[in-house]
């Protein structure tokens, strides 16, 4: 009986350790991602030294970062796509990710409504809403109509929002 109790305690302990490792891994992954994103933005701002440049991590639920340069203001929303799924912009408020070609379930991207409806203006600077997909996306598509789709390009705004992946912005800082 004592052996069964010891085996039971060992099994429960191993399961708890696995669960803790899983939680730590997924929590740490997001912290590392945020640090990499902030470092990228700081690098971009340092390339264009200016006293006006600033990066603010937002407490606003609508967007994650506020980035200001000499001529532009960027409101940046980050979508974490750690598995590099395909992302499809179906309509202004309906964005989804698709795991693979056989995936028939619809997986909507949450918390975008406030960002899409967010209106900001500045009379002296160009205001851009930017959706940053971290780290990458297998493909980034949008529906033109019910039967036609196209690739989303970073330089073209879609519903007033520019979309870019972290990897693309990291390789070409000129998008900001």
Detailed description of the structure:
- The mean pLDDT is 91.
- The protein is built from 3 helices and 10 strands.
- Helix content is 32%, strand content 28%.
- With 176 residues, it is of the alpha/beta class.
- The chain is globular.
- It starts with a helix and ends in a 5-residue tail after the last helix.
- The strands form 2 sheets. Strands 1-2-3-7-10 form a 5-stranded mixed β-sheet. The chain has a 5-stranded mixed β-sheet with strand order 6-5-4-8-9, with no helix packed on it.
Order of helices and strands: HEEEEEEHEEEEH
Poorly predicted spans: none
Calculate the mean pLDDT score and round it.
Answer: 91
Helical content (DSSP H or I, runs of 4+): 25-40%
Strand order of the largest sheet: 1-2-3-7-10
- Global outline: globular
Q: Largest sheet, if any?
A: 5 strands, mixed
- For the termini, the CA-CA separation is 67 Å
What is the topological layout?
Elements lengths: L1 H46 L6 E4 L7 E4 L3 E10 L4 E4 L5 E4 L8 E2 L4 H5 L8 E10 L4 E4 L5 E3 L9 E5 H6 L5
Main attributes?
5-stranded mixed sheet, alpha/beta, 3 helices, 176 residues
Task: Summarize the structure in short.
Helices cover 32% and strands 28% of the residues. The protein is an alpha/beta fold and 176 residues long.
């Amino acid at each position: 009986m004592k052996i069964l109790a010891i085996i039971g305690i060992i099994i429960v302990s191993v399961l708890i350790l696995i669960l803790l490792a899983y939680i730590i891994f997924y929590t740490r992954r997001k912290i590392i991602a945020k640090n990499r994103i902030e470092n990228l933005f700081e690098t971009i701002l340092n390339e264009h030294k200016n006293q006006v440049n600033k990066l603010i991590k937002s407490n606003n639920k609508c967007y994650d970062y506020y980035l200001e340069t000499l001529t532009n203001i960027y409101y940046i929303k980050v979508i974490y796509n750690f598995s590099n799924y395909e992302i499809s912009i179906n309509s202004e408020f309906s964005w989804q990710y698709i795991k693979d070609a056989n995936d028939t379930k619809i997986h909507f991207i949450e918390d975008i409504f406030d960002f899409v409806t967010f209106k900001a203006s500045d009379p002296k600077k160009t205001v851009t809403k930017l959706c940053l997909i971290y780290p990458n996306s297998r493909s980034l598509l949008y529906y033109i109509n019910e039967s036609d789709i196209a690739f989303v390009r970073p330089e073209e705004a879609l519903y007033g929002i520019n979309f870019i992946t972290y990897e693309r912005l990291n390789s070409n800082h000129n998008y900001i």
